[in-house]
Write the structure tokens for this entry.
Amino acid sequence: MLRTTLAMALACCTSAAMAQMNPVGLWKTIDDKDGSAKSEIRIAETAGVVSGKIEKVLDPKSKPDDKCVECKDDRKDQPIVGLELMRGLKKSDTRDNLWDGGSIVEPSTGKVYKVQLTPIDGGKKLEVRGYIGAPLFGRTQTWIRVQ
């Protein structure tokens, strides 16, 4: 009986830890240039496809009614809060803890990049790598899990 209880407790702890090793959740974006918090992004998964929306803007220079005026696609002139920042990511078939195959937009410039997401530090942080062409040619931000 004691062994069964311990096994169940260990299984619950293991599955809870594994659940955190994915990008789904609320993340605080940290600017890779100046280290400041810029926004909170809600990442969700639907039918195996991951996307992320801007839930809150933290940058004091931004206004609540700002729009993505530089965007070139369907996000053009959409409000920044609620904007689908990332779309089309799927769990990698070749690497554990990697989501790729999607894109991310930089609202300030409207530029769209390929993107990779990698949970690190037990799922407390998320490496977000935006790039053009190959991942070698890009930059990485490390976001902090809020929930």
Notes: The longest strand covers residues 37-46. Residues 1-19 have pLDDT under 50 and may be disordered.
